Amino acid sequence: MSYLQQGSPAFHKANYALFAGGFVTFAILYDVQPLMPIFSKEFNVSPAVGSLSLSATTCALAVSMLIVGSLSESWGRKPVMAISLLVSSILVMLTALSPSFMSLLGMRIIQGIVLAGLPAIAMAYLGEEVDPASLGVAMGLYISGNSIGGMAGRIITGSITDFFSWRIAMGSIGIISLACSLWFWFNLPASRNFKPKPLNLRNLFFSLLHHLRDPGLLCLYGISFLLMGSFVTLYNYIGFQLVEPPYRLSQTVVGWIFIVYLMGTFSSTWMGRLADKIGRRKVLWIGLLIMLAGACITLSPNLALKIAGIAIFTFGFFGSHSIASSWVGRRAKTEKAQASSLYLFFYYLGSSVAGTAGGFFWMHFGWPGVIGLICILLLLAFPLSKKLSSLPPL
Hints:
The protein is mainly α. The protein is 81% helix and 0% strand. It has helices spanning 9-30, 36-42, 47-50, 52-75, 77-95, 101-115, 119-129, 135-163, 166-187, 201-212, 215-242, 251-257, 261-278, 280-297, 303-331, 336-390. The protein is globular.
């Protein structure tokens, strides 16, 4: 097989293209997060219902990825990813025209279905095309695009909403995403190691069942559910706290707090390299402990300490996610796209379930209740990590 070698022009083009793809996916997916308090007021819905603008999207994304990964086995990796990004960019501009919360929710569900094309396939593309010795770095760079996109989506919508409206803000995200999607289409190298297979839904079922029988993959899927569940819960409701007394921050300031996503850009790459040196098991434990510490620090009423806690939590999350996601590609020896799709199915399912459940904890117990839920999720990840560490490596 001919792999993309670290340092080669093709390696850099692939990584930058996937960085752009990750940017678009997460910018579109999370541009509604700082807008949830506005949706609650404008459409007269509760915080938990307002959170469905994200949770419904991630739920649709999770289910769709199970099918889209299989489509790519037949249609090819690059075409499915590129079409997904282009159509999603157009849909987010149409969402800005939504006359009601229900219509907005419907458009967001369609976006979730279409967005599935990139995250379901990107990890499989990297696993097939990149030299195994460089996979940790490549996966870290791809996830860096996710973190930058998530940060930019939140900052852009928060800032533009303050000066104009949330509709103009969302339309702006669509225009930026369309430009990045076209860049992705023209720069991602075509697959060299991909071998198309006939589309067979019966084989899809048995392939998914095969992966679910692997105890190591099951542990990784459980960890992905808990990681993303805790992460989205924190970011869903921190905005509600910061716009209320005693902080009373504007949407612009709340949006700019998401610049701490830059910590994720650094940690995913750095921890990916560290895992290549000292082992994935050790680095995953470190990432979980960092997340737990960061979550607890946000309980401080001091705004500077609270933001520092968010940054530490974000650092640990993206590092842990980069380790766990690259581990899936290495453990699954066959049908890598389906294995990656299952990982992301549980990943976004955690976002939907915990992200909405956090609204109950916010309304009844405030911020300490939200952090209590996050700590429970993270503590549950430790037994899975221990079990994963006891299994023989593949």
